[in-house]
Amino acid sequence: MKITLGTVTRPGGSRVNKTGAWRTAGKPHFLQKNCIGCDLCTLSCPEGCIFGTGQKTYYANEDFCKGCGICANVCPVHDIEMKPEEAEDA
Amino acid sequence: MLKGRMIQGCRAIAEAVTLCRPKVISAYPITPQTLIVEELASMVAEGELKTEFINVEGEHSAASLVLGASATGVRVFTATSSQGLLYMAEVVFNIAGMRLPVVMINANRSVSAPLNIWTDQQDSMSVRDSGWLQLYAENNQEACDLILQAYKIAEDHRVMLPVMVCVDGFVLPHAFEVVDLPTQEDADAFLPPYQPLYRLDPDDPYTMGAFAEPDKYMETRYMIQRTMEASIPIIEEVASDFKRAFGRPSGGLFEKYRVDDASTVVVALGSMAGTIKDAVDELRNRGESVGVLRLITYRPLPKEALYEALKGAQNIVVMEKALSLGNSAPVATELRSVFHGRPASPRISGFVIGLGGRDVTVDDAKAAIARAQQQLVDMEFIGIRTDLELEGINA
User: Fold this and answer.
1) Is B195 exposed, middle or buried (0-12, 13-18, 19+ CB in 10 A)?
2) Fewer CB within 10 Å: N-end or C-end of chain A?
3) B69 vs B256: CA distance, rounded Å
């Protein structure tokens, strides 16, 4: 990614500018075990970065996920777990 | 024969701005800058200057307006002073961060409170960290020359940063001097039309002033810092272009007056350097080895060039019309950092002088020099009245 003088960009910059760097307090892990495909995680995500097309298909786009944990909180079958970034790397 | 006309500073500065053909001017009147924009407004009203002159309700708007106009890819001008500059401060930082080559005249004036309309340099010093280049003029001729140079430096694609030309309020804009202004043809040859890198255009849209998160913001500051450093030779290059074009030297990093063999060198900015030169001449006539280095380019601070120019001195005497309340004065502090840990280590003394328009005299300069030759002075005020009771201090 190029940073221009004065951070001038073309419109639609939010597609290029990955704001996931803000993420703190871990990111969601979709366990794909108990998922019933209710779509609540997608609907509740304030970033609109959770996608899925039915049971056990959901995932978060980590380029934009801020790690707020709302998806894990609303999941009625506890199929999403928040884990620290380091835990996943290890 | 002396070239030029006897002309008031404000008029000369306004004519120099005209020679640069700005497409948009916006400013709000504030003493002692008012006369400059009044002259420009009357030139527009008389049809002598083809520009859009936009009246606004305050300096924050004036700066915002020239920011927006500059983003559309045209050359712009604004001017302010003191409280006006402080009111602009938010936008001043934005203009630099957006890399817009705005040129501004700041008629240096003290800051409130107490209200005081006279000259010192506390106002421009308060935005020294904003990313603007700052050039300080000694007289009206230089102020005019620096305006032409400022656009050429700012608009250079290797720079693309705003430039503030600082002139001591009243001492310059209100004084009559002989000023030699170039013809429009010569000015055009020296300063070609502005070629923006990006410009706001509905048919070819750009996003400007976007935000940057923690993973990118620091790089934008790094870029300005690197560009500031790289602009030092460009400032010198523009000064030599100027000399070639108009046949006389002007601008650059600093002016050395009887410095090369001097054991004591005064460092100062702006108009008081003229007074200090008189003091230096008197002391030289008495056989003292004294000179004065007048800093023109304060931002970027030309550290290497200053080190080379001052390394032979035993005493450096910094006289400033500004201070950092709670520390010493800015230029003295910065010069000390230039010499820190390096082979040459002259004694660097700092003096605050002439705040709020108090006269700076030859005797004041001589007093500061004598004091600094006796001992190292961290920071002292020159000319504090002893006949006043100062509550909490001596009363």
Assistant:
1) exposed
2) C
3) 38
Question: SS3 for B164?
Answer: strand
Cα distance from A38 to chain B (closest Cα, Å)?
33
Instruction: Tell me if B206 and A11 make a contact (CB, 8 A cut-off).
Output: yes
Candidates B84, B103, B76; CA nearest to B31 is B84
Distance of CA B330 to the CA centre of its chain: 14
∠B2-B3-B8 over CA atoms, to 5°? 100
Query: Residue A86: is its pLDDT beyond 90?
Result: no
- Return the half-sphere exposure (C-beta side, CA atoms, 13 A cut-off) of residue B289: 10
Mean pLDDT per 10-residue section of chain B, whose length is 395 residues: 87 98 97 96 95 97 98 98 98 98 98 97 98 98 98 98 98 96 97 97 93 90 98 98 96 97 97 98 98 98 98 97 96 98 96 97 97 96 95 89
Q: What DSSP assignment string belongs to B94-142? A: HHHHTT---EEEEEE---SSSP--S--SHHHHTTTTSS-EEEE-SSHHH
State the burial class of residue B175 (Cβ atoms within 10 Å of its Cβ: 0-12, 13-18, 19+): middle
Tokens of residue B301, six digits:
């601070």
Nearest chain A residue (CA) to B162: A6
Please state the pTM of the whole predicted model: 0.93
Is some CB atom of chain B closer than 8 A to the CB atom of A5? yes
Q: Residue B213: which of A5, A13, A22 has the nearest Cβ? A: A22
Could you tell me if A22 lies within 8 Å of chain B, comparing CB atoms? yes
Residues in chain A within 8 Å Cβ distance of B219: 3
Q: Is A3 on the interface with B (CB under 8 A)?
A: yes
pLDDT of A90: 47
DSSP string of B190-259?
HSPPP--SS---TTS--B-S----TTTHHHHHHHHHHHHHHHHHHHHHHHHHHHHHHSS---SSEEEES-
Structural domains in chain A, sorted by start:
19-83 (3.30.70.20)
Residue that the structure tokens 């924050």 belong to: B60
- List of domains in chain B: 5-246 (3.40.50.970), 254-381 (3.40.50.920)
For residue B298, give every residue at least 6 positions away whose Cβ sits within 8 Å of its Cβ, in sequence order, or none: B128, B134, B135, B136, B269, B331
Q: What are phi and psi of B25, to 5 degrees?
A: -125, 135
